[in-house]
Amino acid sequence: MKSLNITTKIRVCDYIELNKMEKILVEVAKEATTRAYSPYSHFQVGAALLLTNQEVISGNNQENIAYPSGLCAERTALFYANSKFPTEAVDTIAVAAFCNDDYTTEPVIPCGACRQVIWETQNRYNRPIQIILYGKKEIYIIDSISGLLPLAFNR
Ligand code: THU
After folding, report:
1. 73 lines ligand 1 (CB under 6 A)
2. Does the Cβ of 110 fall within 6 Å of ligand 1?
3. Is the pTM of this model over 0.85?
4. pLDDT tens per residue across span 128-151
5. Res. 155 pLDDT band, cuts 50 70 90
6. Does some domain include residue 82?
7. 2 located within any domain
8. Catalytic positions, written as ranges
9. Cα separation of 39 and 26, whole Å?
10. What angle do CA 73, 74, 78 make, to 5 degrees?
11. pLDDT at 153
């Protein structure tokens, strides 16, 4: 029997190490948390996308009393971007979260369903999506969704 080893390169950065556009996306994601609708979890998530036409799109989590009807920030932003600019690829997604009166110390990590949607968006436009996950202590940068979803479902 042989084994396959899957590795992911995650760059662990401080805010000051980000370039200008990466800083903008982090700020837009942080600001988007303020408009989250999360009365059940009290966990406010914001996502910011840079599209290839240089548009910056933001989204946040939208909850519902029928819990599964809610949507994460990443998918809110991606579905809106794809609905408004269906010919534009996504270059970068930044994610931040606010809870207990502050932004999270650790980077916020996308759930499995969001990884699948990021993966399909990347595949749809055949262009790697850079992922920036903000935490106060450190920021993770991953060069492609394949790093977070290496064995994606694909017909
Ligand atoms: N949530 C997101 O919006 N994105 C993530 O990456 C993780 C979780 C939302 C879903 C729910 O509204 C709340 O955070 C608590 O799980």
Report:
1. yes
2. yes
3. yes
4. 999 999 999 999 999 999 999 999
5. confident
6. yes
7. no
8. 74
9. 23
10. 120
11. 85
| 88 CB near ligand 1 (under 6 Å) | no
> What contacts 112, CB < 8 A, 6 or more positions away?
149
Q: Which domain holds residue 139?
A: 11-147
pLDDT higher than threshold 90 for residue 29: yes
Quote the ligand 1 centre to 33 CA distance (angstroms). 11
Query: Is there a domain that residue 36 lies in?
Result: yes
Residue count of the chain, please give it: 155
Q: Over pLDDT 70: what percentage of the chain?
A: 100
Residue 81 inside a domain? The answer is yes
User: Is the minimum distance from the CB of 32 to ligand 1 under 6 angstroms?
Assistant: no
**Cα(69) to centroid of ligand 1, in Å?**
12
8 Å CB contact between 85 and 55: yes
Instruction: Please report, for the domain that includes residue 135, its CATH number.
Output: 3.40.140.10
Nearest to 73 by CA among 104, 136, 117, 103: 117
Domain count, the chain: 1
Relative to the CA of 44, which ligand 1 atom is closest? 14
Which pair of tokens denotes residue 49? 């996308």
